[in-house]
Design goal:
three-stranded mixed sheet; binds zinc ion; 294 residues
Length: 294
């Protein structure tokens, strides 16, 4: 009987970020067999235990024999080995949220039953670190040309603030506009391409847009145009943001900092990684068998 594949579908997509890290098996074997003078057999049993570090996946310190590559990469950047030597480690990072913690735990229990294939870990992070890492990933993924990114950033924040697997269905028609709505009641409502959001959510979106664009040329851009910090704070007051979020600060900078703290505090508080080693183990085995049979 074929066993069911483990599915990550129970976790909302907005809480998951995926990275594929490549490893060159030619380099991996060479390092062990040549430098450490071990037999291929010993090298194989050592390599079977191998798991890259988080810093390899994040790109912070990706080191030989690992590399991050696009589809067009067809030679190893270290030894120039051909594509057939490549294998993939597939990492999923989950930024945890109480709304799906039950599903996350269930999934983790399933992963723990396959320790050979899946390596799981949970690095220590503060909420502020999780938030800045999210901003960084968002920053890397968007194109600041044009205005489309404003919408993308706003929607990413809105999805992140209430993670749900239903977003894709709810927004299936696409979002053309995020519109401030003062109607009491729900935080958001979608109607025919328009996403109506509460003053709190709208203000959050402006904050995140401002934060993410300020390190760029012509920074400080938001749905409300390009704003200095003071202008942004004035706009947020007018929108009713401070009232909605219970922020009572007289100084603009103080209000800005309080707003960031509130966005951060309402966000995820833990990070979980699951690294799928299936492709790696399969290719490692076949490379080893060819070496052995030579
Ligand atoms: Zn190589």
């Amino acid at each position: 009987m074929k066993k069911a594949e483990i599915s990550f579908d129970s976790i909302p997509g907005s809480a998951v970020s995926e990275t594929t890290l490549k490893i060159c098996l030619k380099c991996a074997f060479d390092v062990i067999t040549k430098q450490l003078k071990l037999t291929p057999r010993t090298a194989y049993s050592e390599l079977k235990k191998h798991v890259p570090e988080e810093s390899d996946f994040s790109g912070a310190a990706t080191s030989r024999p690992h590399f991050l590559a696009g589809k067009e990469t067809d030679h190893c950047p270290f030894c120039n080995g051909a594509k057939r030597w490549f294998a993939d480690f597939h990492a999923r990072r989950i930024d945890a949220h109480p709304s799906f913690e039950k599903d996350r735990k269930k999934l983790w229990a399933a992963l723990k039953k396959k320790p050979e294939r899946f390596t799981i870990w949970s690095p220590e992070r503060t909420k502020m670190q999780i938030f800045s890492e999210w901003l960084e990933r968002l920053n890397r993924s968007i194109d600041f040309e044009g205005d489309r990114w404003l919408l993308e950033v706003a929607i990413s924040h809105i999805k992140r603030s209430s993670p749900s697997s239903d977003w894709d269905t709810a927004l299936a028609g696409g979002v053309r506009r995020v519109q401030l709505s003062r109607e009491a009641g729900e935080d958001w409502r979608y109607d025919n391409g328009w996403l109506y959001v509460s003053p709190g959510l709208y203000g959050d979106a402006l904050m995140v847009q401002h934060l993410i664009s300020r390190s760029h040329l012509h920074g400080g851009r938001t749905f409300e145009g390009r704003l200095t910090l003071h202008e942004l704070m004035r706009r947020l007051r007018r929108v009713g943001y401070f009232e909605a979020r219970g922020i009572e600060a007289s100084e603009p900078l103080e209000a800005f900092e309080q707003a960031i703290v509130m966005i951060v505090d309402s966000g995820p508080s833990a990070v979980y990684y699951a690294v799928d080693r299936k492709d790696y183990l399969d290719k490692l085995k076949s490379v080893y068998e060819k070496k052995r049979d030579k």
